Amino acid sequence: MSGAVIRPAQGAPGARVAGLGHYRPDRVVTNDDLAQTLDTNDEWVRTRVGIQERRFAGPDESVVSMGAIAAAKAMAEAGVTAADVDAVIVATCTLPTQIPHAATQIAGRLGIHAPGSFDVNAACAGFCYGLEVAAQAVRSGAATTVLLVGSEKLTDWVDPTDRANAIIFADGAGAVVVTGADTEGVGPVAWGSAEDLTETINIPDRASFIHQEGQSVFRWATTAIAPVAERAVRMAGLELADVDVLVTHQANLRIVDAIARKLVSAGARDDLRVARDIVTTGNTSSASIPVALDRMRAAGEVASGEVVLAIGFGAGLTYAGQVFRCP
Q1: Which of 31, 93, 101, 124 is catalytic?
Q2: Is residue 165 annotated as part of the catalytic site, yes or no?
Q3: pLDDT of residue 1
């Protein structure tokens, strides 16, 4: 046996989110619009999920095309070019086919040559899973500049006659650029899964639409997720009072508010700013966290350098969360 020693790569001391961008399709679908074909109304939808309107992609828009637009915006803000990006990660669960994956296709559209590229399918937790992988790649030296995209076209996978799901899901994309930093800007991930609840959200076969047991998911999310968020904060060496902004997966306004209340009761500040993008964007799965955060920035609700607590959760059932500094 050879005595040669394999040496690990050495990367940056820390990682940071250097740029952020998002894309929402132009088509706005209100609750009144849905009521034209579904047995529903505006009050019913707002009461149950908190959504007033959502965005639906057009037939010429895709996971890849929307993701590329969001990614280009994130790259522009980060001040990086296609030549700088050496890894591309796409979080998605709604590609029309599994092969080819989205990451290389998005890289090609942006002129990024020969990056490490792959997709992550952790459904609505996908962005947080991807952020952990991107940050670790930069710290380990596997990459210097990582483009992470969350992009979903959920309308391809939702039965438009299914009142329970058609009112919730929407389309869109969000992206971040992760680079090295002298001081840490991305905290450790707190992640896991509920293997006993895998069937609560599923697509039974290739000819089927998304199915979910709404009440089971609601009970799980409102009881299990706040402790995960607390754990992510502790793992970063922070206190809940240090968190400026809470951006949960935008699953349902009642879930978002329940998590926020529990965190404030546990020590988060009363002035904690909470993303409620679900109201005007709908549930965009892995895209929801970067979309919500970028829209909060645009509204002047978040400043560069503030501490963001992100927590994703959904099909699998999977969950993941971490703190990071807003770009």
Answers
A1: 124
A2: no
A3: 77
